[in-house]
Amino acid sequence: MDNMADGTVLRGGMSSITGAAVEMSLDELFGAVEQEWQDQALCAQTDPEAFFPEKGGSTREAKRICMACAVRDECLEYALEHDERFGIWGGLSDRERRRLKKQIG
Ligand code: SF4
Questions:
Q1: Which residue has the higher pLDDT, 4 or 85?
Q2: Where is [4Fe-4S] cluster bound in this sequence (predicted)?
Q3: Pocket lining for ligand 1, CB < 6 angstroms
């Protein structure tokens, strides 16, 4: 019984140390992945203003570019995670992203 209790404490202690280590390396990993998808962003090679149109302006050209972008999923995920309020991200407008967020909970 004592042994089991010791084992539990030890495992708990070890897992919290491991947890911190994993968290750090995941942060680094996410940073690297984030950078990587942004390097492949198709919009970076086009007119950025198309992605941030004036109110009521057309989003068609930006969305057309997004549809051909290799990192659309990553981009959309980033926008949803960071609650981006402006512009076209991952082929969706702010309103469309909010609707999607509601749908997925
Ligand atoms: S999905 Fe659209 S907004 Fe996102 S990186 Fe690609 S082109 Fe840019």
A1: 85
A2: 43, 66, 69, 75
A3: 41-43, 51, 65-66, 69, 71-72, 75, 88-91
Instruction: Give 30-71 pLDDT, tens digit per residue.
Output: 676 667 899 999 999 998 899 999 988 999 999 999 999 999
Beta-carbon neighbour count of residue 88 at 10 Å? 25
18/40: higher pLDDT: 40
Domain assignment of residue 21, given as a range: 1-32
Atom 2, ligand 1: residue with shortest CA distance: 66
Do 54 and 94 share a domain, yes or no? yes
Question: Of the candidates 102, 34, 73, 46, which has an alpha carbon nearest to the alpha carbon of residue 91?
Answer: 73
